[in-house]
Amino acid sequence: MSDTSGAPDNAITPTAFEPLNPGAPRPGRKGHPLRWLLLGLGLLFALLMAFLLSARSVLISVEAETDTRVDIDGLHLPFGERVLIRPGSYDLTASAEGYFPLDTRLEVTEENSQQILLTLTPLPGRLEIIAEPAGARVLLDGEELGTAPLEDLAIEAGPHTLRLEAPRYLSWQRDIDVTGREQRQQVQAQLLPAWAEISITSTPAGATVLVAGEAAATTPAVVEVLQGEQTVGLSLAGFAPWQQALEVVAGEAQDLGDIALTPAAGVLKLTSKPSGANVTLEGEYQGQTPLTLELAPGVAQRIQLSRPGYRRHSESLTLAAGEQAERNVSLSAQLGELRLAVSPPEATVKVNGKAVGKGSQTLSLPAFEHRIEVSLPGYASVTRRVTPRSGIEQQLDFTLQTQEAAKLAKLTPEITTALGQTLKLFIPDDSPLREFTMGASRRESGRRANEVLRPVALQRMFYLQTTEVTNAQFRQFQANHNSGQVEGNSLNREHQPVAAVSWQQAAQFCNWLSRKEGLEPFYKQEQGIVTGFNPAALGYRLPSEAEWAWAARAEGDSLLKFPWGETFPPTAPVENYADNTSAYVTGRILNGYTDGHVVSAPVASFKPNGKGLYDLGGNVAEWVHDVYTIPPANAALETDPLGAQNGDNYVIRGASWSLSKLAELRLSYRDYGQAGRDDVGFRIARYAE
């Protein structure tokens, strides 16, 4: 209870405090060792927790047959095959007995759980190879290792193909699996023989056994013969050879039994004078002398020799087995007389190719057909066949003509085709330029790279059309042909040169005209396509490039540069070119030149050249026969060249109504193609003989 003063009866009151030693200092705190240990453990625990919270679990698997060891250069915590390791890049080494060590980089990402697969490469295995027979070639995967036996071969682990080969044995091959890891393995190979035993006897014995033509044994014998198709034979003096084809299977023996040899035929080498006599043996024709005959041994046989103009020879011969004999028979001639009258008297007379004298003479010749040839340089030879008659004198007259006279006697200076075309005869031998050079010098203005200088000679006489083939003439071959028009200017009128024809069409026109006149076609055709030519044929053709160049350029003993001469441009109308009136068609003209025709003109509208040929230098350019090539420099002289049998492009010669430049108007200008053009036509030619 409290009284009225407000102080409780049981109140607590402080008492005074006095230190025991008022002058002594107050005691301070001292560190205990346990305190520091706990502090260190706490810090380690914090670091461990930080590592565990940031580390990632990585499973490292190693493919190997032996125990492996994995070392990681960096802070990590292993748990069996797994490790705890923070994200980053670390050097890693994996090793195992029998394997090459593996050094690599371990890349740890931010993923919580990761897996790494490591594959170790086994060390090579040690292989021993034993073979029967020894010395067999050893090939591993196609690469030769040497000859068996082979020991301690270091072979890469894994599958391989092993092959052994030895002469006269079947090849041995196996697929093997090399374990590697320095482990030793052994392979034993037994090669089987590639032959079979062949037994053979003969009557009489002692014959040489031949295998594939090589002596192998003497009968009776057992010989080893390689597998496959083989020939086994027997040879014994005085007996006919024997042989048989066998199909030999390795390891399968065969017995050919006893072979009865037959006595060899006698061999007679028979010749006669003269040779070429017909031979019969017991009435059977055998051939002509010289001849080798086989006669049955020990039997008399009749031999007869006969030859036209000679008396028959007959005799009987007997040869022993294997005997070789020679017989030369001189046949007696049955003669007839030939009296030859020869002019000129210095001409040489040949009988069957053999010279017998000069001029007129009387010959006694055997009574069979002979070939009498009379020849003299510069004259056409004359050949006749005659059969003399015994007791009857015959007379033959030979009067030779010069070669030119003989040729010209058969030829006419002009011919006309079934279409009315005129072709003139040209005889290059009459020209001082029968040998000339095609092309142009590099120094010539306007000269193009394909105008290589090329020496040629013309020897064969030929006909050449005086004008270009017209639309009217070509339409008799192809009735619906249309040469077209240019800017309203027709190219299709009857007497204009045909245009828009390919080289093939031009060549086929030539063959069509040849067949129409009963001539052998010059060009070879297969399924309507020209594939080549026959240079011996006399049918119509396109002129060769050499003939065209000679006809256009040869003027006396010089070669023309332009149709009108040597200077450019022409001063008067000489050919149909791109003149002043053609500008709106061609876009290019020969300034100051007017020929009166915008496009092609009717053929023969201008004067002919010195050979009587029209439009060689203008109007339309012309297909020629030759396949287009650029001749090689310094080529050898060619005579009557015709070029290749076929090709992709063909030569075009001469200028046309659409050309005007200096280079194009030169007579050596060369172009090429195969398809038709509105400024290209052609003219025809043929050989005279």
CATH class of the domain at 414-687: Alpha Beta
Average pLDDT: 90
The helix tally amounts to 7
Beta-strand percentage range: 35-45%
Largest sheet: 4 strands, mixed
**SS content category:** mainly beta
Uncertain runs are 1-17
CATH superfamily of the domain at 414-687: paralog of FGE (formylglycine-generating enzyme)
The strand order across the widest sheet is 3-4-1-7
Rg, alpha carbons: 55 Å
Q: Can you tell me the overall shape?
A: flat
**CATH fold descriptor of the domain at 414-687:** paralog of FGE (formylglycine-generating enzyme)
Cα(first) to Cα(last) distance is 175 Å
- Helical content, roughly? under 10%
CATH architecture classification name of the domain at 414-687: Alpha-Beta Complex
* Total beta strands: 52
